[in-house]
Amino acid sequence: NDFKIFKTLCKVVLPGWEPILREIELQMMTEFDYTNEGRNLQKVRSNMMKSPYKNKVRVPFPILHLCSKNLLVMEYLEGMKLAVAIEEKLASILGGDVKMARKVLKAKQQALFESKHSSHQTNFLSELNDILVESNVNMSAIEKGKKAVQLMSMARDAQNKLNLLLDATGYQIFNDGLYNGDPHPGNILVLDCGKLGLIDYGQTRDLTKHDRLALAAVVCALGRTHVDKHEISTAMNELGFKTRDKNEENLANFAALY
Q: What does pLDDT average to over the chain?
């Protein structure tokens, strides 16, 4: 009923949004049948077990004969959410101050959105060190040095986990063509065994070879040092995106957002 209302509004106010709304509806409705998610989970797990990341990433296996439209039964992965793991590690370095850890991470997120630079690690470590010094003014120079080393190790470990997540997700998209269409922090776990756990495949997309090649062309065009908006627009057209006015700049700008 909600989607019927939305589609009616779109026809009147935002007709150009109808295809997007149809796609959202299609993806959301698949989440109401857990047998689909169980099968998706099985396929993604099988793909990952044959990938270069099989010893670094773990996808839980579904118990299909116990699954139904309203029930999903799968392997339980021991661990915690990646964001929580980073927060707790930082808090332990800051003397157990969880509020300070959250403040630091929030500032980091804000800096990532606002900065135009591709590398943030040095600035981040500097910010962490400044907060560490302010919070522990009575620490000896040796203690401050130890904390600084711990901060560097934590930042490096977090970066490695994020790189692994991007690599594994990229492999799912461009090699397998089957990937999580709803990625968010709650779907990524740091397991007790040290691996990354990937869960929640209620929304998956299955890309054809044509789609994978077309999407790869868009990514490559966006990643060039000297951006060519005509190249980006051409790649977006091949992927299926078009504008009414055939404005290449608008399509290139949308590609960067997309």
A: 84
Neighbour count for residue 230 (Cβ, 10 Å): 12
The Cα 242–Cα 237 span in angstroms is 6
**How much is the pTM?**
0.78
Distance CA 191, CA 170 (A): 21
Q: Which of 215, 242, 211, 181 is nearest to 16 (CA)?
A: 242
- Number of C-beta neighbours around residue 129 at 10 A: 15
Give φ, ψ of 216 to 5 degrees.
-60, -40
> What's the pLDDT tens digit per position in 178-233?
999 888 888 999 999 999 999 988 888 889 999 999 999 999 999 888 888 889 99
Between the alpha carbon of residue 68 and those of residues 37, 59, 62, 230, the distances in Å are 10, 20, 11, 48
Q: Alpha carbon of 133 to those of 12, 91, 200, 217: distances in Å?
A: 58, 14, 40, 47
Q: Classify strands 204-206 and 196-198 as parallel, antiparallel or unpaired.
A: unpaired
Q: Are 213 and 221 in contact (CB under 8 A)?
A: no
**DSSP 8-class letter at 50:** T
CB neighbours (10 Å) of residue 189?
21
With beta carbons less than 8 A apart as the criterion, state whether 80 and 189 touch: yes
Task: Compute the 3-state secondary structure of the chain and give helix, strand, coil in percent, each to the nearest 5.
Answer: 65, 10, 30
Describe the crossing of helices 229-239 and 248-257 by its angle, rounded to 10 degrees.
Answer: 70
Rounded CA gap, 50 and 192, in Å?
Answer: 22
Q: Determine the 3-state secondary structure of 22 from DSSP.
A: helix
